[in-house]
Automatic annotation (TrEMBL):
BP term (GO), one: L-histidine biosynthetic process
Top-level lineage group: Bacteria
Known pathway: One-carbon metabolism; tetrahydrofolate interconversion
Annotated protein name in UniProt: Bifunctional protein FolD
Binding, NADP(+): G165, R166, S167, I231
Amino acid sequence: MAATIINGKELAQELRLGMKDEVKQLKEQGVTPQLTVVLIGDNPASKSYVNGKRKASDEVGILSNIIELPTSITEEKLLQLISELNNDQDVHGILVQLPLPEHIKEQHIIEAIDPSKDVDGFHPINIGRMMTGQDTLLPCTPYGIITMLQSKNIQIAGKHAVVIGRSNIVGKPVGQLLLNENATVTYCHSKTPDLKSYTRNADILIVAMGIPNVINEDYLKDDAIVIDVGINRVNGSLTGDVDFESAKNKAAYITPVPKGVGPMTIAMLLKNTIKAAKGLSDN
Ligand SMILES: Nc1nc(=O)c2c([nH]1)NC[C@@H]1CN(c3ccc(C(=O)N[C@@H](CCC(=O)O)C(=O)O)cc3)C=[N+]21
């Protein structure tokens, strides 16, 4: 039987509808959620992502403010800008689009953002809170993945989740969130020998490798739940890390690329911005 497709684009749309009401209520209380996105340089992919964030914000009534800076900006100047945004009461969320130019240390920038405005959920304080199971701003892609599973009433507790990839923004935190939901979690990565021996035992497989179409049905257990986090541009079109046509024959659920995890990442960013505007994180 062919897999059920988890359409992230549709789910994100549905979530935005709910958020629109929430924002309306906040505005009636005199609070207009505001997201500031800092975009450095002129990477076309970054520009297109930032554009997506702006459009989605507009749709739910979140005020978005995009600050574009040249690649030549110094780390010192950028830190100064972040400090100003931290102190601006009207700004609820701050997102510095990654990747950054080589002369700027990513970790310096992430740690400079006020954790209560860190809508990416990348600050070590927020990561620590996530690890200890506290209410906090969660990293958007992992949060979106959990939301996709929950939207289909997929049970996570007791399942074996295998995560391929160990980045700070996807692999590590998604494993942590799955663990928080009582999954048994295995992390695999580029140095894992015999990847198939792990993935074939995965009830839930999260693929965040950055290699187009590498995961096919040979890697899957029957009726696996397959979440494709890959965003690869191949000959001008977007493709995931999973060979969708092959995998869909064996999986029970699968996410497509595009229209899968990507739009959910943006939806959760909006959710975090609303949460930050409500001042729910207590610092
Ligand atoms: N500080 C920071 N936070 C991020 O969240 C962040 C970042 N930097 N740098 C880049 C990555 C990438 N990312 C995506 C978001 C949405 C889609 C998305 O919506 N993709 C659509 C297609 C979009 C298209 O056609 O280009 C889809 O998959 O259907 C993709 C990728 C957020 N990122």
